Predict the structure.
Amino acid sequence: MFGAAYAQQIKLTDQLMVNIHSVTEQMDRSFYIQLPKNYGKVNKQYPLIILLDAQDKTLYNYTSSTIDRLTWTNDIPEAIFVGIVQKDRSKELSFEGNEKTSAMFLTFIKDELIHYLHEHYALNGYYTLIGHSLGGQFVTNAMLTYPETFRSIISISGALSYPESEPNFKRKVLTKLANYLAINTHRSYAKQKYYFSTGDEDYQESMFKIGALAADSIFRTNKTNSINWHFDYLKGFNHATTPLVSIPSGLTFIFHDWHFSDSLAMDVLLNHKTDPLQALNQQAAHILYSYGTEISIAAIAYYQFADYYLSKGEVNKAEILINQIINLYPNNDESYSLMAQVFIKKGEVKNAIKYLELAQTKSSVEKYAEKIKNLQKL
């Protein structure tokens, strides 16, 4: 397939710890942040993925490596990844048991953390919350409380139920979910996306699965069009192992509508059923409709389709697409090298040399010197 090597560049940067003061909670907050490797070199904005319980470094590191892998395979878009360190999980995450302090923590995320991130980083306004256990309860409540803000949720082994002898669990979130779905029956544009899961092994999971199965029943009973949802019942998994399946499954579910599938690419590259520019425009429109904001299509699609046009001799269309590539990836030498090929096919040697020289300024190695020298002889 054309241009496959370009995907190798996708990666998250190293972890950075940031501390800010929460005015709502009157305390200092810490979070980790990781940016896409090419952040600052690419002319685009990014979705935000927020993980709770980042003090659990195994959970945080696993989520980070999963995002790395799924962006490399182009199953999810490049994203800014944030992990919030909890100070008191019960008070911060338990809407069931500590509604007031949980609401304050939610306000901190919505009004302070996201505001801070928008001020300092290139966000596109699409946020995904990931929570495990009490965190699953918290993110579900966040989706129901602020649906316009939190449109994308991954709830793993969410603490939605417990034995009736436990006074801190009153099925508040399940009741809220049922009421929400009964009222919000239809939403044709930018639907919320909700992934949830449970295992069935160990004591905790044997209790929490009751709440997850109840939520599944609520969704099935209320034929809502406002939320795209998916439930994974992970038999044989326990409370500690459910994230291993749920994080990659949840992320690929959330970004399923973004993913430029191999079948779509094959329709362009091999079956010649769709024009590349048309395919890209249709996918961009589909993404905007599904997510309510622009999320850049994977770079590999642009480069593959530009190579396709050049191989077919469709120089004018190649030039249109490569101009888009240069706008999106102004610091990538391949962008300018492709435009040089356009001018070579047009017989415009001086312009070809100009773009190869630009390509050389963006490269750390002397990869274009010989091509430039050969063209100068012409």
